[in-house]
Amino acid sequence: MSAKETVAVGQLLELLESRYAIRVLWALRDGHAQTFRLLQDSVGGITPNTLNTRIKELREAGLLTHGSDGYVVTAAGADLLKRLGDLQAFAVKWSTAQAKKTK
Prior knowledge:
This protein has 6 helices and 2 strands; from the N terminus they run ααααββαα.
C-alpha cells in the first residue's frame, strides 16, 4: 500500500471510528430517506447533539446529504455501504463462532 493510500484509509477509519458514525450510515443503507427523529430512533441510544455532530461530519465527508424527505446517503456513501455489505454476513458467522467458544 502506498503512503497516499495509507493516509486515505487512515482518514476514512478516523471518520468511521467516531461514535455512532457507522450506525448512522448503516441505518440509511436501504436507500430510504429518514427524518432526524426517525434516524435517531433507527440508530438507537444516540443523543440529538451527537447525531447532529455525526450528520455534520458525514455531510462534510460527502457520505450523507439532506433531501426533501430527510437524510440519505450520497453515491459515495452508498458505495461505502456496498463495500461494507459483507459485514453483516461476517458478523453473524463470527458471533456464532464466539458463542460456540463459550459452551
